[in-house]
Amino acid sequence: MSENLSPADFIGVCGDGIISFGSGQPDLPPPKEVYKILPNYSDFKYGLIQGNANLREVLAKQYPSSTPDSFVVTNGASEALDLTLRVISAKAGKGKNKVLLPKPYYYSYPHMIKFAGMEPVFTELIDGRIDFDDFKEKIKECSAVIINSPSNPTGRVESIKTLKQIEKITEELGVYVLSDEVYKDLIYTRENYLIKGPRVVTINSFSKTYAMCGFRVGYLWSRDQELVDEVIKIKTHTSMNTNILGQEMAYEAATKVPRSFIDNQLKIWEARRDMIYEGLVNLGLDLWKPEGAFYVLPKIKNPKDFVMEMFKKHKVITYPGEWFGAPDRVRFSYALDIENIEEGLRRVKKYLDEHGN
Ligand SMILES: Cc1ncc(COP(=O)(O)O)c(C=O)c1O
User: Fold this and answer.
1) Could you read off the pLDDT of 215-236 as tens digits, one per residue?
2) Strand partners, 146
3) pTM above 0.90?
4) How far is CA 307 from CA 10, 35, 103, 108, 317, in A?
5) Is the distance from CB of 213 to CB of 207 less than 8 angstroms?
6) Which residues line ligand 1 (CB under 6 A)?
7) Which CATH architecture has domain 7-29+260-355?
């Protein structure tokens, strides 16, 4: 393992007494309804590039004033973000190729922006939330912004007031909003607020809510039909259709899984949130209290040494904050059961007893 760690060093690493606060995937089982179809499933053909019609019809019922035509089912939220950025880059042309990112950010965003031939511009969060004064200045030079509330890696949820201010200013300036809502069902403090507007692209996924990360089913929805059509054009010549079995399972999830499944999961996440937040506070660490998603981002002295030693000596995986634009912090995902969180905290304590913070 080199000193220059990358997510690939940790994703999927397990066993041998390792406790992983690394990867952001739910450890909880998917609802049984989604895999009941497996024994009788036999369709192996190419599917519609835009996505299975039955799934888009169900999705259209979940989003007010949408139609099945305004959705594209993608390989996770990841492909939806990638394709949307590429379309915006082509539309914006050379002059206005900047994308605003609240920082700390989900680690793939800057890479995706650059792959699309655009440049990330950053607005620093204050106390883990968007500083609208800075935002409103920086947004003027951008053709798009990515909003991720609840956020990976901060666990924070933006206030409805800020989200409405963002809706207003981006509509006035004609700036695209990519609203990455993959954690919309994992909010501890209030209902999700759906960001709306003519240039809003809502991005979501079945990965987190239904613990279906590996099936790679996500989607985008926008009132900007031209953008949706351009996304389909790129998808036609890149990945083609999204995994059709995954889409059928997503359809089962959207139609057969009761709301109580999501509510029960939320209770489990909240208990874990309380345990890790209080545990780290008791160890003297400075961190924001998560209001959604399943991450904490405490400040840690010498974060890279912490990550390396925690892995090599204490068999605990954590991610350096620098991957997320937070070089003085370390990210912990609490997608693991209470016993493992407790044991992980004991090992963090051992490190801190030795090195201080
Ligand atoms: C903020 C955010 N967006 C997108 C993704 C990717 O999700 P998907 O599995 O749907 O591609 C993740 C995964 O961790 C995420 O945290």
Assistant:
1) 999 999 999 999 999 999 999 9
2) 178
3) yes
4) 11, 37, 21, 20, 7
5) yes
6) 24, 76-78, 106, 148, 152, 180, 182, 205, 207, 213, 218
7) Alpha-Beta Complex (3.90)
